[in-house]
């Protein structure tokens, strides 16, 4: 079972452990990026068959919903909490890190909009060839971004944020996804971030 840099298993991450939930989302993003790579090769070999259409649909739904939530979790909740926790000292290093990650988000969002246009056509059954450079740039940006967050951001947040701040972040993340408070802390929020997905065989 996979575990995050914070020491929890990804499968157990819930709103009561928001930093772990963010780390678990990183694993899901990496999984979607792997699907993108396999999908591109599959389209070249087999065109936009049913499996390609379903895979494209699932990737679109993920990045349009859970992926967007992840960026909002950080920019609307985690980053402000970190800045508030250091308001008295105002260390330049934390502000620089946050500014860097926000810029990453803008570049990732722009890259996703470009890539999404290709995926929409694949979902519709149009066997258009993938732009391999565009796909690799998008994945490369995410790899570097996730590495920076797991090396610097999440460990810093674990050190600086107290239970009250983490509880507020978790509650906001729950509300963003429309999950009722009574759902239970042990539930896996990733499964509720998106509507049910169409089934597709593994794209190889």
Structure overview:
The structure is a single chain. The chain has helices at 18-46, 50-64, 66-85, 92-123, 132-160, 163-176. 68% of the residues lie in helices and 0% in strands. The longest helix is centred in the middle third of the chain and has 32 residues, at 92-123.
Task: Annotate the secondary structure layout.
Layout: H1 18-46, H2 50-64, H3 66-85, H4 92-123, H5 132-160, H6 163-176
CATH C-level label: Mainly Alpha
Unreliable stretches (pLDDT < 50, length at least 5) are: 5-9, 183-197
What fold name stands as the CATH topology?
Four Helix Bundle (Hemerythrin (Met), subunit A)
Number of helices: 6
Number of domains: 1
Tell the overall outline. elongated
| Helix fraction bin | 55-70%
- What sequence of helices (H) and strands (E) makes up the elements? HHHHHH
Q: Classify the secondary structure makeup into a structural class.
A: mainly alpha
The major beta sheet can be summarized as:
none
Instruction: Report the C-alpha radius of gyration, rounded.
Output: 18 Å
**Percent of sequence in beta strands:** under 5%
Average pLDDT score: 87
N- to C-terminal distance: 22 Å
Q: Which homologous superfamily in CATH is the superfamily? A: nmb1532 protein domain like
Q: What is the name of the CATH architecture?
A: Up-down Bundle
Task: Tell me how many strands there are.
Answer: 0
């Amino acid at each position: 079972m996979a575990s995050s840099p914070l020491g929890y298993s990804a499968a157990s991450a819930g709103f009561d452990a928001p930093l772990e939930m963010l780390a678990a989302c990183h694993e899901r993003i990496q999984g979607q990026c792997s699907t993108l790579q396999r999908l591109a090769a599959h389209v070249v070999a087999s065109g936009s068959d049913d499996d390609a259409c379903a895979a494209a649909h699932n990737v679109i739904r993920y990045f349009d919903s859970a992926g967007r939530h992840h960026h909002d979790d950080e920019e609307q909740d985690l980053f402000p909490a970190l800045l508030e926790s250091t308001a008295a000292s105002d260390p330049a290093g934390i502000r620089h890190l946050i500014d860097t990650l926000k810029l990453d988000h803008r570049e990732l969002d722009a890259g996703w909009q470009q890539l999404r246009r290709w995926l929409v056509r694949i979902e519709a059954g149009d066997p258009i060839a993938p732009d391999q450079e565009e796909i690799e740039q998008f994945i490369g940006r995410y790899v570097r971004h996730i590495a920076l967050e797991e090396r610097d951001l999440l460990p810093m947040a674990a050190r600086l944020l107290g239970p009250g701040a983490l509880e507020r972040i978790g509650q906001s993340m729950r509300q963003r996804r429309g999950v009722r408070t009574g759902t239970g802390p042990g539930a896996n929020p990733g499964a509720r971030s998106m509507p049910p997905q169409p089934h597709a065989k593994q794209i190889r």
